[in-house]
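in:
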């Protein structure tokens, strides 16, 4: 059964792997810009220098649901599902995932509570693994 994360959650820090910025690594699914905006502006290029605590990404992480089987954390906003996993330095980073990858119990809880609508889960259900830009369409809303 999924459980809510306590307020004593570990530190969240984004990863350049999931940002639409130049990097010397293979990119994963790119995060929408709205997930890492702050009052001072957007994410530049250094994930260690960004004020992650002031972002929507950190808010999503703080309210994420833990999957009891994998230990990974899940959140949703703007119809998109996000997964967070731990990094080697003890922080966590999150990224958009298609709905087909969200544990069924978590997805069903969110559908029942109204956190996400069925049409949104259908729209973002599956993507080709090479389509890393799909979640950025929510930047245009």
């Amino acid at each position: 059964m999924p459980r809510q994360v306590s307020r004593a959650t570990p530190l969240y820090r984004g990863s350049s792997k999931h940002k639409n910025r130049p990097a010397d690594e293979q990119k994963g699914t790119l995060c929408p810009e709205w997930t890492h905006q702050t009052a001072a502006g957007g994410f530049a290029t250094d994930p260690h220098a960004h004020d992650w605590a002031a972002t929507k990404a950190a808010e999503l992480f703080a309210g994420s649901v833990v999957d009891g089987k994998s230990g990974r954390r899940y959140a949703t906003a703007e119809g998109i599902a996000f997964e967070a996993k731990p990094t080697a330095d003890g922080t966590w980073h999150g990224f958009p995932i298609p709905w087909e990858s969200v544990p069924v119990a978590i997805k069903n809880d969110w559908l029942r509570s109204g956190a996400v609508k069925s049409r949104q889960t259908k729209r973002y259900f599956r993507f080709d693994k090479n389509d890393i830009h799909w979640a950025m369409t929510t930047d245009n809303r």
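note: The mean pLDDT is 80.
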